[in-house]
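Hi R.,

Here's the chain you asked about this morning:
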Amino acid sequence: MEKTTDKNIYTIVFAVIMVAIVGTILAGLFSFTKPLVTKNREIEKQQNILYALGVNENTETSANFVDADDAPVKFENFVNRQIVIQDGEIIENDQAYLIDVKKEKSKAKSDSYSRKLPLFIGEKDGETIYVIPIYGKGLWDDIWAYIGLDKNMVIQGAYFDHKAETPGLGANIKERFFMDDFIGEHLLDDNGNFVGVTVAKGNADPRNDRKEDNKVDAIAGATITGDGVTAMIKSDLALYKPYFDTLKQ
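And the predicted structure, written out as C-alpha coordinates:
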Protein backbone atom coordinates (compact mmCIF):
# COMPACT_ATOMS: atom_id res chain seq x y z
CA MET A 1 0.00 0.00 0.00
CA GLU A 2 1.40 3.41 -1.05
CA LYS A 3 2.18 5.72 1.80
CA THR A 4 0.51 9.15 2.00
CA THR A 5 3.87 10.70 2.80
CA ASP A 6 5.22 9.50 -0.55
CA LYS A 7 2.39 11.33 -2.34
CA ASN A 8 3.16 14.48 -0.37
CA ILE A 9 6.82 14.31 -1.34
CA TYR A 10 5.90 14.04 -5.05
CA THR A 11 3.62 17.06 -4.71
CA ILE A 12 6.29 19.11 -2.99
CA VAL A 13 8.96 18.15 -5.56
CA PHE A 14 6.60 19.00 -8.43
CA ALA A 15 5.77 22.37 -6.86
CA VAL A 16 9.47 23.18 -6.36
CA ILE A 17 10.26 22.30 -9.97
CA MET A 18 7.37 24.43 -11.29
CA VAL A 19 8.39 27.39 -9.13
CA ALA A 20 11.95 27.11 -10.43
CA ILE A 21 10.76 26.93 -14.06
CA VAL A 22 8.35 29.86 -13.72
CA GLY A 23 10.95 31.89 -11.82
CA THR A 24 13.50 31.31 -14.57
CA ILE A 25 11.01 32.33 -17.26
CA LEU A 26 10.04 35.52 -15.38
CA ALA A 27 13.67 36.42 -14.77
CA GLY A 28 14.37 35.97 -18.47
CA LEU A 29 11.41 38.14 -19.44
CA PHE A 30 12.49 40.84 -16.99
CA SER A 31 16.02 40.88 -18.42
CA PHE A 32 14.62 41.00 -21.95
CA THR A 33 12.11 43.81 -21.32
CA LYS A 34 14.15 45.94 -18.90
CA PRO A 35 15.99 47.94 -21.61
CA LEU A 36 12.67 48.64 -23.36
CA VAL A 37 11.00 49.76 -20.13
CA THR A 38 13.98 52.01 -19.31
CA LYS A 39 13.91 53.55 -22.78
CA ASN A 40 10.17 54.21 -22.55
CA ARG A 41 10.65 55.98 -19.21
CA GLU A 42 13.38 58.15 -20.71
CA ILE A 43 11.13 59.10 -23.61
CA GLU A 44 8.27 59.88 -21.23
CA LYS A 45 10.50 62.28 -19.29
CA GLN A 46 11.47 63.98 -22.55
CA GLN A 47 7.78 64.29 -23.44
CA ASN A 48 7.03 65.81 -20.02
CA ILE A 49 9.77 68.41 -20.42
CA LEU A 50 8.67 69.24 -23.96
CA TYR A 51 5.07 69.65 -22.78
CA ALA A 52 6.13 72.22 -20.19
CA LEU A 53 8.04 74.01 -22.96
CA GLY A 54 4.84 74.21 -24.96
CA VAL A 55 5.88 71.53 -27.45
CA ASN A 56 2.93 69.14 -27.56
CA GLU A 57 0.04 67.87 -29.67
CA ASN A 58 -2.76 69.42 -27.63
CA THR A 59 -6.24 69.66 -29.06
CA GLU A 60 -8.65 72.37 -27.94
CA THR A 61 -9.53 70.48 -24.77
CA SER A 62 -7.18 67.50 -24.30
CA ALA A 63 -3.52 67.30 -23.28
CA ASN A 64 -1.34 65.25 -25.62
CA PHE A 65 2.39 64.63 -25.75
CA VAL A 66 4.42 64.77 -28.94
CA ASP A 67 4.66 61.31 -30.49
CA ALA A 68 7.09 58.98 -28.70
CA ASP A 69 8.97 58.36 -31.95
CA ASP A 70 9.49 62.11 -32.41
CA ALA A 71 10.31 62.96 -28.78
CA PRO A 72 14.12 62.32 -28.82
CA VAL A 73 14.65 64.53 -31.90
CA LYS A 74 12.35 67.30 -30.65
CA PHE A 75 14.00 67.14 -27.24
CA GLU A 76 17.40 67.70 -28.84
CA ASN A 77 16.03 70.53 -31.00
CA PHE A 78 14.17 72.45 -28.28
CA VAL A 79 16.26 71.80 -25.15
CA ASN A 80 19.50 73.76 -25.49
CA ARG A 81 21.05 72.99 -22.12
CA GLN A 82 20.65 70.60 -19.23
CA ILE A 83 22.25 71.62 -15.96
CA VAL A 84 22.37 70.38 -12.38
CA ILE A 85 22.51 72.83 -9.48
CA GLN A 86 24.18 71.47 -6.37
CA ASP A 87 25.56 73.47 -3.46
CA GLY A 88 25.09 76.60 -5.56
CA GLU A 89 27.34 75.21 -8.29
CA ILE A 90 26.04 74.92 -11.83
CA ILE A 91 27.12 71.72 -13.57
CA GLU A 92 26.50 71.02 -17.26
CA ASN A 93 24.99 67.54 -17.61
CA ASP A 94 23.40 66.27 -20.82
CA GLN A 95 21.82 63.41 -18.86
CA ALA A 96 20.19 65.62 -16.22
CA TYR A 97 16.73 64.52 -17.32
CA LEU A 98 17.52 61.04 -16.00
CA ILE A 99 17.97 62.27 -12.41
CA ASP A 100 15.37 60.72 -10.10
CA VAL A 101 13.82 63.76 -8.41
CA LYS A 102 11.94 61.62 -5.90
CA LYS A 103 15.14 59.91 -4.72
CA GLU A 104 16.99 63.22 -4.55
CA LYS A 105 14.24 64.69 -2.40
CA SER A 106 14.41 61.69 -0.08
CA LYS A 107 18.21 61.84 0.21
CA ALA A 108 18.03 65.53 1.05
CA LYS A 109 16.28 64.68 4.32
CA SER A 110 19.78 63.99 5.58
CA ASP A 111 21.65 67.16 6.54
CA SER A 112 24.82 65.65 5.11
CA TYR A 113 23.42 65.40 1.58
CA SER A 114 23.18 68.25 -0.90
CA ARG A 115 20.30 67.70 -3.30
CA LYS A 116 20.86 67.68 -7.06
CA LEU A 117 18.48 70.07 -8.79
CA PRO A 118 18.05 69.39 -12.53
CA LEU A 119 17.09 72.27 -14.80
CA PHE A 120 16.33 72.23 -18.52
CA ILE A 121 16.77 75.35 -20.62
CA GLY A 122 14.91 75.47 -23.91
CA GLU A 123 13.56 77.89 -26.47
CA LYS A 124 10.07 78.13 -27.93
CA ASP A 125 8.92 80.87 -30.30
CA GLY A 126 12.06 82.86 -29.57
CA GLU A 127 11.52 82.82 -25.80
CA THR A 128 13.84 81.11 -23.32
CA ILE A 129 12.00 78.78 -20.95
CA TYR A 130 13.40 77.05 -17.87
CA VAL A 131 11.77 73.72 -17.06
CA ILE A 132 11.91 72.31 -13.54
CA PRO A 133 10.75 68.85 -12.38
CA ILE A 134 9.08 68.72 -8.95
CA TYR A 135 7.72 65.91 -6.76
CA GLY A 136 5.21 65.65 -3.95
CA LYS A 137 2.43 63.69 -2.27
CA GLY A 138 -1.26 63.68 -3.14
CA LEU A 139 -4.15 62.04 -1.34
CA TRP A 140 -3.16 58.44 -2.04
CA ASP A 141 0.34 58.44 -3.50
CA ASP A 142 2.98 60.39 -5.42
CA ILE A 143 2.23 63.40 -7.61
CA TRP A 144 4.72 65.24 -9.79
CA ALA A 145 5.01 68.03 -12.33
CA TYR A 146 7.20 69.78 -14.86
CA ILE A 147 6.94 73.56 -14.67
CA GLY A 148 8.19 75.92 -17.40
CA LEU A 149 9.23 79.39 -16.24
CA ASP A 150 10.58 82.56 -17.79
CA LYS A 151 13.50 84.39 -16.18
CA ASN A 152 11.10 86.27 -13.88
CA MET A 153 9.67 83.01 -12.53
CA VAL A 154 6.37 83.46 -14.33
CA ILE A 155 4.88 80.12 -15.36
CA GLN A 156 4.87 79.50 -19.12
CA GLY A 157 3.74 75.88 -19.12
CA ALA A 158 2.89 73.08 -16.70
CA TYR A 159 2.36 69.35 -16.81
CA PHE A 160 1.01 67.51 -13.75
CA ASP A 161 0.66 63.78 -13.22
CA HIS A 162 -0.10 61.33 -10.44
CA LYS A 163 0.25 57.70 -9.44
CA ALA A 164 -3.08 56.89 -7.82
CA GLU A 165 -5.34 59.91 -7.31
CA THR A 166 -9.11 59.48 -7.43
CA PRO A 167 -10.57 59.38 -10.98
CA GLY A 168 -12.73 62.40 -11.70
CA LEU A 169 -11.36 64.24 -8.66
CA GLY A 170 -7.66 64.45 -7.77
CA ALA A 171 -6.75 62.68 -11.02
CA ASN A 172 -7.95 65.81 -12.83
CA ILE A 173 -4.66 67.57 -12.07
CA LYS A 174 -3.49 66.21 -15.45
CA GLU A 175 -6.43 67.71 -17.34
CA ARG A 176 -6.05 70.82 -19.50
CA PHE A 177 -8.54 72.92 -17.51
CA PHE A 178 -6.36 72.61 -14.41
CA MET A 179 -2.88 72.71 -15.94
CA ASP A 180 -3.60 75.69 -18.20
CA ASP A 181 -4.73 77.75 -15.20
CA PHE A 182 -1.11 77.94 -14.09
CA ILE A 183 0.11 79.60 -17.29
CA GLY A 184 0.94 83.22 -16.54
CA GLU A 185 0.89 82.77 -12.77
CA HIS A 186 3.66 84.56 -10.86
CA LEU A 187 5.74 82.67 -8.30
CA LEU A 188 7.08 85.91 -6.77
CA ASP A 189 5.24 88.71 -5.02
CA ASP A 190 5.58 92.40 -5.89
CA ASN A 191 8.73 92.64 -3.75
CA GLY A 192 10.43 89.73 -5.48
CA ASN A 193 9.90 87.27 -2.63
CA PHE A 194 9.08 83.68 -3.50
CA VAL A 195 5.52 82.74 -2.51
CA GLY A 196 4.64 80.03 -5.06
CA VAL A 197 1.11 79.31 -6.24
CA THR A 198 -1.67 78.12 -3.95
CA VAL A 199 -4.44 75.83 -5.19
CA ALA A 200 -7.22 77.62 -3.35
CA LYS A 201 -10.90 77.03 -2.63
CA GLY A 202 -13.17 80.01 -3.10
CA ASN A 203 -10.60 81.87 -5.16
CA ALA A 204 -13.40 84.06 -6.60
CA ASP A 205 -11.50 84.14 -9.88
CA PRO A 206 -13.14 81.36 -11.97
CA ARG A 207 -11.58 82.52 -15.24
CA ASN A 208 -8.20 82.93 -13.50
CA ASP A 209 -7.77 86.46 -14.80
CA ARG A 210 -5.67 87.56 -11.82
CA LYS A 211 -2.22 86.22 -12.55
CA GLU A 212 -0.38 88.05 -9.78
CA ASP A 213 -2.46 86.78 -6.86
CA ASN A 214 -0.40 83.56 -6.55
CA LYS A 215 -3.57 81.45 -6.64
CA VAL A 216 -5.47 79.09 -8.94
CA ASP A 217 -8.89 77.55 -8.36
CA ALA A 218 -9.00 74.20 -6.61
CA ILE A 219 -10.62 71.11 -8.13
CA ALA A 220 -13.95 70.35 -6.45
CA GLY A 221 -13.66 67.33 -4.17
CA ALA A 222 -9.86 67.16 -4.42
CA THR A 223 -8.72 69.31 -1.51
CA ILE A 224 -5.87 67.09 -0.32
CA THR A 225 -4.51 66.57 -3.84
CA GLY A 226 -4.62 70.33 -4.36
CA ASP A 227 -2.81 70.88 -1.09
CA GLY A 228 -0.14 68.45 -2.32
CA VAL A 229 0.27 70.46 -5.52
CA THR A 230 0.60 73.67 -3.51
CA ALA A 231 3.18 72.10 -1.19
CA MET A 232 5.42 70.68 -3.90
CA ILE A 233 5.38 73.96 -5.83
CA LYS A 234 6.37 75.94 -2.76
CA SER A 235 8.98 73.48 -1.46
CA ASP A 236 10.67 72.48 -4.72
CA LEU A 237 10.50 75.56 -6.95
CA ALA A 238 11.73 77.79 -4.10
CA LEU A 239 15.07 75.94 -4.25
CA TYR A 240 15.69 77.40 -7.71
CA LYS A 241 15.16 81.06 -6.80
CA PRO A 242 18.89 81.73 -6.20
CA TYR A 243 19.58 80.60 -9.76
CA PHE A 244 16.88 82.89 -11.19
CA ASP A 245 18.28 85.77 -9.15
CA THR A 246 21.56 85.36 -11.05
CA LEU A 247 19.71 85.82 -14.37
CA LYS A 248 18.84 89.38 -13.37
CA GLN A 249 22.38 90.39 -12.47
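The chain has six helices and eight strands.

Let me know if you need anything else.
M.
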